[in-house]
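Model: Ready when you are.
Researcher: Fold this.
Model:
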Amino acid sequence: MMKILSKPLAMLALMLVSSLALAHTGLKESTPADGTTVKMAPAAIDLVFNGDVRLIKFELSSGDQEMETGFKPVAETMANYSIATPALSEGSYTVNWAVIGADGHTVTNSFSFSVDAAAVAATQ
């Protein structure tokens, strides 16, 4: 009886561990959101992750020019970050970020947004 139960339990445990290992941390939402056009330049960029992470890189650029944000990585982990932005003019911006998740893996990605005061259907 013990052998019959141990095999299914071992398979179930293996499936659970495998699915957890594949569940890397990711960006749940950002403000401004990816691909949006805002009428007013944001005073900060907010990042919301799907779990506590350590933000190790935050770069804001427009074309080839990197914008100084004063971002410095910290050891504390959290799910929500708000990074102050310099005075942004109209144009397109890209945010490159990297985090270390609870599983120890580094995850990197980017998103873009635009600032256009004349935008009719802009979101903020």
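Researcher: Now this one.
Model:
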Amino acid sequence: MRAGTDTVAQETPVPLQSVARVVRSKNAGPTQLTLDVFLRDAHAYARAAASPALQADAVAGLYGLACGQVARYELPALQALKFTLPRRVVAGSPGDGDVYGAQQHGPLLGVEI
């Protein structure tokens, strides 16, 4: 656990969307997606960064991916977390229902941290 997160870890879980300013997804090239989570303040960022539900392996499970297929990036100066994961279908190919990758953040909204 990171320094200063002991109190955060003991708080009652809340939905991510209640402490996030922005939760979005977009393409990161034709074969990958990026999920961005911008938190409301430093406390919300610390809470999200320390949450087991927002570790790379947990996000992989949420999207039905194997551990190791999701990369997590912490951006404390922006109070943001970023995840990169493979798209199920190459952007724009037959069967792609979201060519811009802008509708893939939904599963994160219900995550409790």
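Researcher: Key takeaway?
Model: DSSP finds five helices and four strands in the chain.
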